[in-house]
Amino acid sequence: MGERQGLGDSGEPRDGQGLPDVATGRGRPAAAVFDALGAEYERAFAASAAHRESLERLLADLAPGSRVLDVGSGTGRPTAQTLAAAGHRVLGVDVSPVMTALAARQVETAEFRCADVRELLLPESEFDAVCVYFSLLQMERGEQRELLERLVRSLRPGGLLVAATVPVDAAGVDAVFMGQPVRVSSFGAEEFTALITRAGVAVEWEHSALFTPDHPAGAPEPHLFLHGRRH
Predict the structure, then answer these.
(1) Residues near 201 by Cβ (< 8 Å), separated by ≥ 6?
(2) Given a cut of 70, is residue 126 above it in pLDDT?
(3) What is the 3-state secondary structure (H, E, C) of the chain?
(4) For 20-65, how does the pLDDT look when each residue is reduced to its tens digit (9 = 90+)?
(5) β-sheet bridge partners, residue 221
């Protein structure tokens, strides 16, 4: 999959809450984690039917030639590739140089920038849609709140926000994701939905699914997809 996915771990969820097993040591920075994973990450998440259903819904709601920001664009597939193939103007942003270079090779009709989106200038009302597929999980909760508010402001009025996460109550949890030590934070489903609503988005559609990455260390994890419009 082209985007940041999962709080995946190398063992069973703890206490039935979907939380990953605690790992020894601190998690690595996101850029180092996804530089190491490269194309292996895309292969592990390629079978996510829920992600593709979300993209199909987004395509149905977009006007021709829309300007779309893909946050955490990863390898460029499936999000940037799907949107660009439909004629939309896509800007993908990812903190991993390896992922960004791979995306540029795989999706030549989209633009990709290697940058930390938390530090990126986001002009107000610039985009018709913003996609945030699983790209918040290695940020602290306060950073997630702040970034979502900035992303919503970068949408034109009536613009579309698509966000997906692993809906578990986790703050600064050390875990192992596809063999890589990571530190993750997330929100439960109701809190994450409320977070997006408070940022100025009317949620129009939500979908929950359970997905197991195609990887030796993959374990089932809940996924939550939300679609909404900026007020």
Answers:
(1) 152, 161, 228, 229, 230, 231
(2) yes
(3) CCCCCCCCCCCCCECCCCECCCCCCCCCCHHHHHHHHCHHHHHHHCCCHHHHHHHHHHHHHCCCCCEEEEECCCCCCCHHHHHHHCCCEEEEEECCHHHHHHHHHHCCCCEEEECCHHHCCCCCCCEEEEEEECCCCCCCHHHHHHHHHHHHHCEEEEEEEEEEECCCCEEEEEEEECCEEEEEEECCHHHHHHHHHHCCEEEEEEEEEEECCCCCCCCCEEEEEEEEEEC
(4) 333 333 445 777 766 666 677 788 888 899 999 999 999 999 999 9
(5) 211
Return the C-alpha torsion angle 94, 96, 99, 105, nearest 10: 80
pLDDT of the residue at 43: 80
Is the model's pTM score more than 0.70? yes
User: Residues 108, 140: contact at Cβ < 8 Å?
Assistant: no
Nearest to 3 by CA among 108, 89, 117, 127: 117
Helix 189-198 / helix 141-153 crossing angle, nearest 10 deg? 40
* CB-based burial label for 88 (10 Å; 0-12, 13-18, 19+): buried
Cβ-based neighbours of 157, under 8 Å, separated by 6 or more: 125, 230, 231
State the pLDDT at residue 194.
98
Q: Locate tokens 């940037």: which residue?
A: 80
Residue 213 carries which side chain, given as an amino acid letter? P
